[in-house]
Amino acid sequence: MAKFLVQKSEPLNGEVYISGAKNAVLPLMAASILAGDKCTIMDVPDLRDVEVMKEILTSLGMEINQTQDSVLEFDGSNLATNEADYELVRKMRASFLVMGPLLARTGRAKVHQPGGCTIGARPIDLHLKGFEALGAEVVSKDNYVETIAPEGGLVGASIYLDFPSVGATENIMMAAVLAHGTTYIENAAEEPEIVDLANFLNKMGARLKGAGTDTIKIEGVEKLKGAEHTVIPDRIEAGTFMLAGAITKGEILIKNVVPDHVKPITAKLRECGVMVEMGDEGMYVVADRNELCSTDIKTLPYPGFPTDIQSPFMAFLTTVQGSSTVIETVFENRFMHVAELNRMGANIKTEGNKALIQGGKSLEGAQVIATDLRAGAALVLAGLVAEGTTEISEIYHIERGYEKFVKKFKNLGANILRIDD
Ligand SMILES: CC(=O)N[C@H]1[C@@H](OP(=O)(O)OP(=O)(O)OC[C@H]2O[C@@H](n3ccc(=O)[nH]c3=O)[C@H](O)[C@@H]2O)O[C@H](CO)[C@@H](O)[C@@H]1O
Ligand SMILES: C=C(OP(=O)(O)O)C(=O)O
């Protein structure tokens, strides 16, 4: 099993280019099922999760070609089946996003239950309620879910989500674009990735309005055509590098970032004394001047503080003076990194969904486990300022979602090595 060896590094310095967003590209790829002809997606990051989505789409009969670096072309004209293979679906939760488009395009879909993961149980009830509201019959048995549209096709409906789930909003949007009549998704997720998906669907001929607000209106159309689209920059990758600059007291220029998308992260870093400024070339993060201080964080759906940056931010908070509180409200089990950070000398106590961090600790390198994608990133950040060597195992989690991770960190002067055991 591959590992990362991270050693205490000089303050990071230089520039980093942010890749296309994992959480945007996966639904965009699923949406390409809806077009009867070719779609081109640009700025596709080279990630394990993208590879899994490619395998799933290929298994459905779609043809995928890489026409240039980071450019993929999807041809769904010969879709062969509407059943997604168990072995592929179980590899990645986001694979369930093929359900909405398959149901809309073929009137039926069969997909394995995606299952939970370390950060939470992650049920799919809201996705299924949405499909049912559109008139589909939903059969859940033997670990798979089958959805069947009524004879005349799906019918537009008003759907209120109990929670603004990102995946449910996306799946329902993709099912509703070809339904008869108008669909309203209320209490919809407002994440930038939802807006990106809506923009792509509209380029394909769909009629969506209101993406990025809590109510999305979708007027069904008869069919969709191919389209070209560039994936938005990854705001979580950008946040991770902002924190890398902050924790090492460095100076980083982050290129290809949308300032609005990282506003909650910027606001919290500024509260801690980090300078974050937008310039002509990108976003400057400078942490070498002031004494940094603590802050409190509560994760929330967008535009609140992103749960995906909670663990990297916590790594940073262990190093600043003062005590901080972190409250996780989106996932019920997203503190797996706490035990690992404590093994490195951090002082973090948890009570339910609240973590109390006594900052200003000197961290020590240790053998730690990347329990999930962002927990892994948090441990790398901690390793950059810890005395000695931090050995991080199970790094396949990190490689699911960060493109050219080691290369980008090394370019900034980080002391990080990937080794195969
Ligand atoms: C591929 C992708 O885009 N992943 C992101 C997406 O995940 P994902 O789309 O899975 O996240 P959701 O917004 O759906 O989940 C948020 C919460 O809602 C709950 N829930 C969700 C659906 C459902 O049917 N029932 C239900 O109870 C989940 O268990 C969780 O507690 O949004 C999360 C929240 O910003 C991010 O952390 C993930 O990085
Ligand atoms: C939780 C995450 O992703 P996923 O929904 O793909 O598990 C993440 O990107 O931090």
Automatic annotation (TrEMBL):
<dbReference type="InterPro" id="IPR001986">
    <property type="entry name" value="Enolpyruvate_Tfrase_dom"/>
</dbReference>
<dbReference type="GO" id="GO:0008360">
    <property type="term" value="P:regulation of cell shape"/>
</dbReference>
<dbReference type="GO" id="GO:0009252">
    <property type="term" value="P:peptidoglycan biosynthetic process"/>
</dbReference>
<keyword id="KW-0963">Cytoplasm</keyword>
<keyword id="KW-0131">Cell cycle</keyword>
<comment type="pathway">
    <text>Cell wall biogenesis; peptidoglycan biosynthesis.</text>
</comment>
<keyword id="KW-0132">Cell division</keyword>
<protein>
    <recommendedName>
        <fullName>UDP-N-acetylglucosamine 1-carboxyvinyltransferase</fullName>
        <ecNumber>2.5.1.7</ecNumber>
    </recommendedName>
</protein>
<feature type="binding site">
    <location>
        <position position="93"/>
    </location>
    <ligand>
        <name>UDP-N-acetyl-alpha-D-glucosamine</name>
    </ligand>
</feature>
<dbReference type="InterPro" id="IPR050068">
    <property type="entry name" value="MurA_subfamily"/>
</dbReference>
<feature type="modified residue" description="2-(S-cysteinyl)pyruvic acid O-phosphothioketal">
    <location>
        <position position="117"/>
    </location>
</feature>
<dbReference type="GO" id="GO:0051301">
    <property type="term" value="P:cell division"/>
</dbReference>
<feature type="domain" description="Enolpyruvate transferase">
    <location>
        <begin position="6"/>
        <end position="408"/>
    </location>
</feature>
<keyword id="KW-0133">Cell shape</keyword>
<dbReference type="GO" id="GO:0019277">
    <property type="term" value="P:UDP-N-acetylgalactosamine biosynthetic process"/>
</dbReference>
<feature type="binding site">
    <location>
        <begin position="122"/>
        <end position="126"/>
    </location>
    <ligand>
        <name>UDP-N-acetyl-alpha-D-glucosamine</name>
    </ligand>
</feature>
<dbReference type="Pfam" id="PF00275">
    <property type="entry name" value="EPSP_synthase"/>
</dbReference>
<feature type="binding site">
    <location>
        <position position="330"/>
    </location>
    <ligand>
        <name>UDP-N-acetyl-alpha-D-glucosamine</name>
    </ligand>
</feature>
<keyword id="KW-0573">Peptidoglycan synthesis</keyword>
<keyword id="KW-0670">Pyruvate</keyword>
<dbReference type="GO" id="GO:0005737">
    <property type="term" value="C:cytoplasm"/>
</dbReference>
<dbReference type="InterPro" id="IPR013792">
    <property type="entry name" value="RNA3'P_cycl/enolpyr_Trfase_a/b"/>
</dbReference>
<keyword id="KW-0808">Transferase</keyword>
<comment type="function">
    <text>Cell wall formation. Adds enolpyruvyl to UDP-N-acetylglucosamine.</text>
</comment>
<keyword id="KW-0961">Cell wall biogenesis/degradation</keyword>
<comment type="similarity">
    <text>Belongs to the EPSP synthase family. MurA subfamily.</text>
</comment>
<feature type="active site" description="Proton donor">
    <location>
        <position position="117"/>
    </location>
</feature>
<dbReference type="InterPro" id="IPR036968">
    <property type="entry name" value="Enolpyruvate_Tfrase_sf"/>
</dbReference>
<dbReference type="GO" id="GO:0071555">
    <property type="term" value="P:cell wall organization"/>
</dbReference>
<feature type="binding site">
    <location>
        <position position="308"/>
    </location>
    <ligand>
        <name>UDP-N-acetyl-alpha-D-glucosamine</name>
    </ligand>
</feature>
<dbReference type="InterPro" id="IPR005750">
    <property type="entry name" value="UDP_GlcNAc_COvinyl_MurA"/>
</dbReference>
<feature type="binding site">
    <location>
        <begin position="22"/>
        <end position="23"/>
    </location>
    <ligand>
        <name>phosphoenolpyruvate</name>
    </ligand>
</feature>
<dbReference type="GO" id="GO:0008760">
    <property type="term" value="F:UDP-N-acetylglucosamine 1-carboxyvinyltransferase activity"/>
</dbReference>
